[in-house]
Amino acid sequence: MPNYISVVLLACVVPCGVMEAQQPExxxxxxxxxEAGKFDGRVVTVTASYRYGFEWQELFCVSCRxxxxxxxNLGEEPSKTLARxxxxxxxxxxxxxxxxxxxxxxxxxxxxxxxxxxxxxLSALTGVDLVSKSGxxxxxxxxxxxxxxxxxxxxxxxxx
Amino acid sequence: xxxxxxxxxxxxxxxxxxRATTRRATGWGLWGFTLQYDGAGRLKTVDNAATVAHExxxxxxxxxxxxxxxxxxxxxLNHYFREQxxxxxxxxxxxxxxxKNFAPxxxxxxxxxxxxxxxxxxxxxxxxxxxxxxxxNLYMAAPSDTNAYSSEHTHRP
Lengths: 160, 157
What we know:
The complex is a heterodimer of chains A (160) and B (157). Chain A has helices at 2-20, 29-34, 80-87, 143-147; strands at residues 25-26, 43-53, 56-60, 70-73, 94-105, 118-132. Chain A has 160 residues and is α/β, with parallel strands linked by helices. Chain A has one domain: CATH 2.40.50.140. In chain A, strands 1, 2, 3, 4, 5 and 6 form a six-stranded mixed β-sheet that branches. Chain B contains four helices and four strands. Chain B has helices at 46-66, 79-96, 123-138, 149-152; strands spanning 24-28, 34-38, 101-102, 114-115. In chain B, the strands form two sheets. In chain B, strands 1-2 form a two-stranded antiparallel ribbon. A two-stranded antiparallel sheet of chain B has the order 3-4. Chain A binds chain B through residues 53-56, 58, 90-94, 110, 113-115, 133-137, 139-140, and chain B through 1, 79, 83, 104-108, 136-140, 147, 149, 152-153.
């Protein structure tokens, strides 16, 4: 009987461990939004622009902006590495380019303040490049800052 | 959120803790956030009051809709109108507290929803302009947005 229990426990524990070690899948942000359902629950890495401020934020690429709003969930207790990266960002609002890794929630819902269709549970942020200390929409950023926003490739035609 | 935390002419009794310091001391206020006083016993974080009032408007609006879960009714507000109402509250609270000005932190003067220097006949216009700029340029919200409560919370009691 004890051996039987051990086998059952192992059967549970091993897949859990495998899931935690899931390697991030690098994907274009535009492809991620276009095929959101396909990436639901998967750990992904995307390079994109991110603007934020009091009660607003937007993870986007210029070439597919508006295709679907993604809430960047920073979590209650980010890792020390992530917290250090976040502390380096402009304090109250700003716009950055960066590489974002985390579990993607691709089933259409009402994330964030309710106005976001998808969510990325951020676990790592790398390659941060400050674009602006303003978190305003790209259209109202000065032209030199606007030019620095991440374009992304448009969705791959054969990827659906 | 404020550009200036100094309340004009508002004096509060000095908490005991401030006697030990001349620059700044803290005490616990309502809702558990910290109220900061300067050496003269002035409440430093009046912006917190405006922020709490802003969030209170959101809570009240959401509660109003939760009472009916109706679709397309007057309480089924989209994001634009929710934020418009909340920023209006922030603005009048900032005015009532005598703050120098009030805007989303880090934003420029075009986002001010209150400024003590505004002339009385201009206040309503400038307040509306500030709120409008915030909604359009920062929140990316428009009156025609379809993201009302009923579209975001499809479950029903």
